Amino acid sequence: MSAGFLPFLLSGMLMCGVLLHMSDHVDKPSRKPNFIVILADDIGWGDLDTNQPEAKANNTPCLNLMAEQGLRFTDFHSPASTCSPSRAAVLTGRYGLRNGVTHNFAVSSVAGLPLSEVTLPQLLQRDGYYTAMIGKWHLGHIGPYGPTNRGFNYYLGIPYSNDMGCTDVPGYNLPQCPPCDSSGPKVISVHGGCYSKVGLPLIENDSIVEQPLDLWTLTEQYKSAATRIIQTARYNRGQPYLLYVALAHMHVPLAPPLPPDAPSTAFHQESSKVYADSLQEMDSLVGALKSISDDTDRDNTLIWFTGDNGPWEQKCQYAGSVGPFTGTWQTSRGGGSAKRTTWEGGHRVPTVAYWPGMIPANTTSSALLSGMDIFPTLLSLAGVPPPSDRHYDGIDATNILLHGEQSGREFLFHPNSGAAGKFGDLQTVRMGKHKAFYITGTSESCGGATGRQQVHNPPLIFDLQRDRAEETPLKVGTPEYQAVVEQITRRREELLWDIATDESVSTADYSIDESLAPCCDPRRTVCRCDTLG
Ligand SMILES: *[C@@H]1O[C@H](CO)[C@@H](O)[C@H](O)[C@H]1NC(C)=O
Ligand SMILES: *[C@@H]1O[C@H](CO)[C@@H](O)[C@H](O)[C@H]1NC(C)=O
């Protein structure tokens, strides 16, 4: 630890409330553990201060402290590089090629995560857990596809991304989107633009409670709902619980805290500060959840923070940092290398796990892991066997979490999330320190440039230990290359065969019906309603 780090930690401890409370140490017999899974949206690996201390940023004091009291993963990956597939894989422990979710659902999607899929909350709920979700679902919101029909007892949040609908006071975005009243019932542009056919709805259980919702008070709403859930679960129900918090942060539009006297309709900040301010707000929300949990059932609660995919580079100053994972091979040929791509910036995400007394404090793990591993790990900690009628892709990481085991996954496949080839295709493979691309592809960079998709036969192979920027592939034909390519090719064929012969593969219905866009009261402009009072 550098000398400059200590004051930084102390201020973090004060801000995050650590010195301010002593938790009543509840005795811990064989009670089942509580789980709080926090999924940030579009966060960059480099956004977590402790992932790159040399940058000397001080945006995430609460997460830094959580890492200091828990375990920080440096080689943890989202299961996909875009929203719906990543979330589907977290909740099912399966690749999109099995669970059917290979790309994003739309505002007027008729379906969602296939009903044949079994979710983590369903399994825990059946086992006696109280299950609640706060935040962005994005796995289908019509009828049986909504969160309260997929295993959650309670839900409060946005059914999809926070840019998929207008609001009265828009947050920061690029392009800047107009407010609901001036945009009217039309679609201005779709990809990366402003969808304003209906206002952004806030849903509680299966009803719209506010439309358009107020982006600027959402953090407070999430915080008070989470507080209520954690406290009620502990004191009133005495049940173990799963709380899944899928944050609106750091996805655009960003709506960082307003200065105390700011008129609420005015844009108040220099655009260069907006991302950092939002990141700090996210961090203090995470700190608040940790504090509430520490005050209620500290020694029996695992908090697992991670991200759904890398930063949305196209949003320029409103996008996060990939740190050293710049995907230079790609960016030097044009285009972006973060969200939607299988370059490291697309899926390597900041990840911290915290469980006082169970997870050794102040530890770092470079084990190769994926968000898909959350499913089998939580089930294993809860003592719930997953149904044996299907194949899973996640691994049980209990020994890595609790016992310092270092070896993670032998292989990890990164699905195409729109940058190259067919959606969901497993064209990028990680084995140890090596990573092979059978197809490369790119997303839009800041400024909108894209490179082209390119097939590689033989594959491009990078050594991530020597070359985190993925700049210079190994020379084809060297003994190192040969050894790696043979193993990777064989394992990839085995996996594809396993999926091809898996009888439990689901297919998602991606069809659209414009009349199904969530709408509180179609007679009023962009479906205005407010039942929150
Ligand atoms: C955490 O680990 C770092 C690096 O090993 C060490 O310098 C630091 O003192 C540790 N902090 C605490 C609170 O133990
Ligand atoms: C949501 O469901 C919970 C649990 O069933 C219930 O207590 C609450 O009143 C419901 N809220 C709404 C707005 O229906």
Describe the model.
With 533 residues, this protein is of the alpha/beta class. It has a domain at 32-171 and 197-259 and 272-409: Alkaline Phosphatase, subunit A (3-Layer(aba) Sandwich), CATH 3.40.720.10. It has 13 helices and 17 strands. An eleven-stranded mixed beta sheet has the order 11-2-10-9-1-8-4-5-6-7-17, with helices on both faces. The protein has a four-stranded antiparallel beta sheet with strand order 13-14-15-16, with helices on one face. The longest helix is centred in the middle third of the chain and has 27 residues, at 271-297. It binds 2-acetamido-2-deoxy-beta-D-glucopyranose (NAG) (2 copies). Residues 153-154, 204-205, 207 line the site of one 2-acetamido-2-deoxy-beta-D-glucopyranose. It is found in: Lysosome. It comes from Mola mola (Ocean sunfish).
Second CATH tier, the architecture of the domain at 32-171 and 197-259 and 272-409: 3-Layer(aba) Sandwich
Biggest sheet architecture: 11 strands, mixed
The CATH topology of the domain at 32-171 and 197-259 and 272-409, please?
A: Alkaline Phosphatase, subunit A
Query: Spatial order of the strands in the main sheet?
Result: 11-2-10-9-1-8-4-5-6-7-17
Oligomer: single chain
Mean pLDDT figure: 91
Instruction: Count the beta strands.
Output: 17
Catalogue the ligands.
Answer: 2-acetamido-2-deoxy-beta-D-glucopyranose
User: What order do the helices and strands follow?
Assistant: HEHEEHHHEEHEEHEHEHHEEEHHEEEEHE
Instruction: Sum up the overall morphology in one term.
Output: globular
What share of residues are in beta strands?
5-15%
CATH C-level category of the domain at 32-171 and 197-259 and 272-409? Alpha Beta
Low-confidence stretches: 1-11, 19-29
Q: Which superfamily, in CATH terms, is the homologous superfamily of the domain at 32-171 and 197-259 and 272-409? A: Alkaline Phosphatase, subunit A
Distance between the termini: 50 Å
Count of helical segments?
A: 13
Computed structural class: alpha/beta
Rg to the nearest angstrom? 22 Å
User: Helicity range of the residues?
Assistant: 25-40%
InterPro entries: Alkaline_phosphatase_core_sf, Sulfatase, Sulfatase_CS, Sulfatase_N
Pfam families: Sulfatase, Sulfatase_C
Family: Belongs to the sulfatase family.
Subcellular location: Lysosome
